[in-house]
Structure formats: structure tokens, C-alpha cells
Amino acid sequence: MDVPRPIESAACEYYRRVEAGGLHRGKNQDAITATCVFLACRQHAVPRTFKELCALTRVPRKDIGRMFKLLKDKLGAADTAAMSPDDLMTRYCANLSLLETAQDCAILLGRMARERDTLAGKSPVSVASACIYMASHLVAQPRDARIISRVAGVSEVTIKNSYKLLYADRSLLLSSQVLAVDSAASIDNLPIP
Questions:
Q1: Which residues, in sequence order, are CB contacts of 33 under 8 Å at separation 6+?
Q2: How far is CA 61 from the centre of its chain?
Q3: How many whole angstroms separate alpha carbon 141 and alpha carbon 101?
Q4: Of 80, 12, 3, 75, which is closest to residue 45 (Cα–Cα)?
Q5: What is the tens place of the pLDDT at every residue in 155-185?
Q6: How far apart are CA 40 and CA 48, in angstroms?
Q7: Which of the residues 70, 83, 98, 176 has the least number of beta carbons within 10 Å of its own beta carbon?
Q8: pLDDT by residue (tens digit) across 62-84?
């Protein structure tokens, strides 16, 4: 995993604190390492999902999740911010080669959906993916759900189901502020689910 030097240093510091506190005894060392990297990423606002760490470290998501719950409190890392869809959208839009207008539109959509509880209970990855799908079509830079699913690591069905909820609430979500992001933005560009 390619991480900036400050994140690497923070992860090493977390690991040192784990060893100093004797928290590593009887625990999966790979899970501890992956969790330290995860905590450091969150601390520095560089979001990574458990799924991404699992793919890189070959540690089961369940093990990372358990270790995260244990270490978060023990290391005093409880103040690390939870991941939000906004954190992910920038990276996903860049990986999809979307223009900044599509990214801005997706972020605005995500915020509007959060205010209205349109996608309440959905994971940040699902929300980000569905908002990107809708925004890309809205501003005439369409990306297929299959491509977005590869970038985000969620299924096409998850994206399309979340999109259906957004589409049903489109009259309230697509305010003049959202439509003003791009001159090409039009509700007519949206695919019917």
C-alpha cells in the first residue's frame, strides 16, 4: 500500500504503543499491523475501507474489525473521524477520470441525501457510488455502474438499488444549487431505473 510518510509514521507509532501496552500478545500480528495503518489513515483524513485493507494484507475483514474495536479505545484513537461518503468521492471520481464538476455535483448530492435521509442505513461506499453514478449522468459524463463498482468495490446491484432511492427523491435532491454546478446538468440526462 502506497501511503504518505506521515501516515506511515503514525502507523508505526500506533504499533509501538500496542507493543508497549502488551496488547499484541496472542493476537494476529497482521491484523494489528493492518489496524494500525487503518487508524493512521483515518487520523490523517486519508480514508481506506476495511475491504481495501483486506485485499492488500490478506487479513479477514472480521479480524481487522475486531482489532479496530479493541485498539481504537486502548490507544486513545477514538477521536479519529468516521469515514464519510465525501471522503471517498474525491478518490473515486479521480479514478473514474471524471471532471471536477461531476465530483462537486456528487458531493452536493451526497450532502443533500444525508440531510433528507434518502440513503439512511447505507454504507459510505454505497452512498458515494450511487451519488457518483447519478452525478456523472446528470452532468453528461456518464459512467456505467459496472465501472463504478470496480473502482468502489461494491456490486452493481448495490449501486443501482441506492440509485433507485436517489432517483425517487430526485425532485427534492436536485436543487438549483446542484444543477448550477455544470451548465450541461439536466434531470433529463438521468437514466430511468
A1: 11, 15, 57
A2: 16
A3: 10
A4: 80
A5: 999 999 999 999 999 988 988 888 888 888 8
A6: 10
A7: 176
A8: 988 888 888 887 877 655 666 78
